[in-house]
């Protein structure tokens, strides 16, 4: 079924297409819940050119790439898909958001503790607005704070407006620590709370997606307790992340599907008077 199983997809580490396919199958029970019914943006390596993002696969009638099964994961490996990014919506109703993602990006050289504390502060602020959230380590430099939304779900402009308000709240309460502006200069010494993931068609890396980066790190769900208790950046490499570890990490999000909340039921009209806590 796999053509060119020996093809190296992650050049720094020599991870081949066959190895990726086997890993997808091993962790499928933990990975698939993060993909099911969501449009995907996938990063592909084909050998002919540098890796590129795709939302549509040539020749398919389905409008977006989706993956709902183990077989689907094997097809993605066959296509040389090295990263899986999901939209914050479902394929059958993409005009509203079923999650918000705050993408916390540290300025160059910032210690991990600053990103961690920023995520914890965003979580607390959201909680003060009546919204529960979940953490994901991207496998890169930052963290994502993910907010599930159940009906009535917001259309994307409303979702973006809400996320921008949260980001700007932090930037104005503690301008030396946070920024709501893009660009390396703005985030120097600060954490950029990127709210721009919250538009139709924007994506964020899925939990249990490998990253096309040296060491082949994997994005993972994290419990707030685990995040709070650790001083170092969480690091899970594809070659070390087995099925049992994936299942353990997945438990961090086990309450996700039971959450019932919307922007309408949260107290969004009023920005919390509390300033974020820092260490
Ligand atoms: P890090 O923690 O290192 O920032 P990240 O996954 O958050 O890792 P970002 O560069 O902050 O990486 O990008 C945020 C998200 O934007 C990514 O997870 C990805 O889904 C999306 N993204 C970035 N570039 C592209 C692109 N060219 N096409 C599609 N999606 C992209
Ligand atoms: Mn990021």
Q: Can you walk me through this structure?
A:
The protein is of the alpha+beta class and 279 residues long. It is built from seven helices and twelve strands. A hairpin with a 7-residue loop joins strand 3 (40-44) and strand 4 (52-54). Helix 1 (17-26) runs antiparallel to helix 3 and helix 2 (28-35) crosses helix 7. The relative contact order is 0.18. The protein binds adenosine-5'-triphosphate and manganese (II) ion. Adenosine-5'-triphosphate binds at residues 41, 53, 85, 103, 105, 138, 140-142, 203-205.
What would a concise description of this structure say?
By secondary structure, the protein is an alpha+beta fold. About 25% of the residues lie in helices and about 20% in strands.
Keywords:
279 residues; six-stranded mixed beta sheet; four-stranded antiparallel beta sheet; 12 strands; disordered C terminus; binds adenosine-5'-triphosphate; binds manganese (II) ion
- Low-pLDDT segments: 269-279
**What ions, cofactors and ligands are bound?**
adenosine-5'-triphosphate, manganese (II) ion
- What structural class should be given to the helix and strand makeup? alpha+beta
Rg from Cα: 19 Å
